[in-house]
Each structure stands twice: as C-alpha cells, then as structure tokens.
Design goal:
Helix content: 25-40%
Radius of gyration: 24 Å
Bound molecules: iron/sulfur cluster
Distance between the termini: 33 Å
Order of helices and strands: EEEEHHHEHEHHEHEHEHHEEEEEEEHEEH
Strand content: 15-25%
Shape: globular
Mean pLDDT: 83
Strand order of the largest sheet: 9-8-7-6-10-11-12
Number of domains: 3
Length: about 325
C-alpha cells in the first residue's frame, strides 16, 4: 500500500502537512502519523493499517474518505520509479523591469525577450514613459502581462483614453506592495512548486527583475544584486541561472526548514548566509507564521520566535527546548 503520487506530505517541527496537489485539499497531522504514512508499504491494506494502529483510526478514516491511499501498489510496481525531480527547459517564469528608457531600450534591442519568458511585466513610474513603451509594445504584446503603474494620481481610465493602449495589455494600478506586504506569505499548492522546492529556493528560481540602473535581482522585493543587464546579451543570459543562489535549498534556510508549508511557500524575502555555517541561510524579517507553535500572527495566542524559545539570526540558530516545550504544551494541551 502507498499514497497516491499527487499526495505530498511535509514534516514540520511540530506537525505535518498533507496536500492533495490535484484537488488542492490540505490536512494537518501529528508527526507520529507522518511516520506511519512513510511506512505504508508495511501494510497490505487499509483494514490492516487501521487494526495495527488503532490510535490513528480517525486520521486513517479521514484520508480513506478522501481517496489518499493506493491499495493497488502491486500493479504499480510494474511501472518504472516515479521521478521526484522537476526538469524543464530554461526560460524565466517572469521577467520584470522598473522602466528606465536606456535600460528598457538596451533590453529590448539586445534580447529576444519572448524566447526568454512568456511573462513580461513593466513597472511604470511616469506618464511620459508610456509613450516610449507604446512604440515597442506591439513587438511584445503576447508576453507583456502587466503594465504596473506606480502613480496614485494617474487614473488608469485616463491612460487608456489618452494613449488608447491595446486591450491585450492588462493595466494594473500598483501601490508599492513590495514595501507594505513583505511579510505577507503566499502559498501555492501544485505539483511543480512542490517538486521545484525540493531542489531550489522557489522564490529565486528562474525569476528576474531589472531595476532602473539595470541591476539584476530575482524579484522587485529583493535587495541582493546578481549582476547588471549591461553585462549580458542573448548568448550569455543563461549564465544567470548559475550563481551562488542557484542551489539554495529551503531545507538550508533556518526556521523555514522546520515549517510544514516550506514546499508550497512563495515568500520572496532574501536569504542571507549565516556566519556559523556557509551553507546555511537565514531571513532578516520574521515570518507571519511561527512553525514551532503552528500559529499565524493574526491568531490570538500567537507568539513570535523569541517568546517561543527560538533564536535565529546571522550568528546563531538555537531552540531553547525547556522554554519551547513549556510554551507548546500550554498552547496545545
Ligand atoms: S516559515 Fe514562513 S516563509 Fe518560511 S516556509 Fe514557512 S510560511 Fe514560508
């Protein structure tokens, strides 16, 4: 017996998450139940599993109802092993640019952008810039997904009326979300994001943002600069996928490594090397979710990491077990 292949389970420090990536359903379980689920091949069928583990009867029944188990594993054994890795041709999932005339012209004159991505986003800060962009937009209209206008004064209707932009361009007003929403966590439940996060830091993987100086980052929200667009052209742009951040794995990022959401999380915060281990990273700003006590900051009994007995910064990662156990038991028992 086994789990169906679209059922993904992730063990966190304090509980486990089960996700059905096809139906989008999620369930939380104890880590003891996680251990049982990883040894399902020891059982012939659900009846035997339930009889031998009566303490998990309720959990097993819940999963049984949701068609999580596959009892035909004997037949499946005739098929080749399922590859738990993601392989895809090189393209950027998204290229975005803070509009600057020189940088924009360099980019559009020197790169086949439509070969590099199918999602091109232009952040515009001045009304006049739209005129410059408009001249070139026809060439890119099948990949320009958004013109993000960073100006509260300009009415979008007005822009459409004045410049009669083609309806294919989606105009979106955009207040600087990167500053206000840095701590908002986006979770995306699908197979690809799960497989990708097993190998990479999803928020950096195949993302490219170009700022007004031509500096390259992964996302507008990031501070880390990985080069300048003027150093690149059509022939060497693929080199950008090989940098010191290419092989960061979420399991090497302190705190996130213990979070049951880590394989579906799209938090864009930069990850920074710790001083205690060159292969370990940390995030400067604490997440809105505390994976040790399994609480979100909007919940009444939420406590931050420090108050839960966890210390995570550039120089140290430490769990004060006595303090943590005391707090966890008070919250959950
Ligand atoms: S701790 Fe926060 S940022 Fe890290 S994986 Fe969990 S939800 Fe995402």
């Amino acid at each position: 017996m086994d789990l169906f292949k679209d059922i993904k389970i992730t063990k966190g420090y304090s509980r486990s998450l089960l996700v059905d990536t096809t139906k989008g359903n999620i369930e939380f379980f104890s880590n003891d139940f996680y251990n049982l689920l990883t040894n399902l091949s020891d059982y012939k069928n659900i009846t035997e599993l339930t009889e031998k583990n009566p303490e998990f009867k309720e959990d097993i029944n819940l999963l049984k109802k949701n068609y999580v188990f596959n009892e035909n594993i004997l037949e499946l054994e005739n098929f080749i092993e399922y590859e738990d890795t993601l392989e895809s041709p090189f393209t950027f999932y998204k290229i975005s640019i803070d509009f600057d005339k020189f940088v924009f012209n360099y980019l559009t004159d020197n790169f086949d952008i439509y070969k590099l991505t199918d999602k091109f986003i232009i952040h515009i800060y001045n009304l006049e810039d739209i005129l410059t962009i408009k001249k070139k937009l026809d060439k890119y209209k099948h990949i320009v997904k958004y013109l993000k206008i960073h100006n509260d004064i300009i009415e979008l209707k007005e822009i459409l009326r004045i410049y009669k932009l083609d309806e294919t361009y989606e105009l979106e007003s955009y207040k600087d979300e990167s500053k206000t929403n840095l701590n908002k966590i986006k979770l995306l439940v699908n197979n690809n994001i799960y497989l990708e996060s097993k190998q990479f830091y999803s928020s950096y993987k195949n993302m490219l943002h170009i700022n007004k100086n031509g500096d390259l980052k992964f996302n507008p929200e990031n501070e880390i600069i990985i080069g300048n667009i003027l150093e690149f052209n059509n022939n060497n742009i693929n080199d950008l996928t090989f940098n010191e951040y290419t092989n960061i794995n979420i399991n090497d990022v302190m705190v996130c490594k213990d979070c049951e959401f880590r394989h579906f999380c799209l938090d864009k915060q930069d990850v920074i090397k710790t001083t205690f281990d060159k292969k370990k990273y940390y995030k400067k700003k604490e997440c809105e979710y505390n994976p040790y006590i399994c609480k979100w900051s909007h919940e009444d009994d939420y406590l931050n990491l420090e108050y839960s007995g966890i210390t995570s910064n550039a120089n140290i990662f430490e769990i004060n077990l006595e303090k943590f156990n005391q707090i966890f038991n008070k919250l959950w028992n």
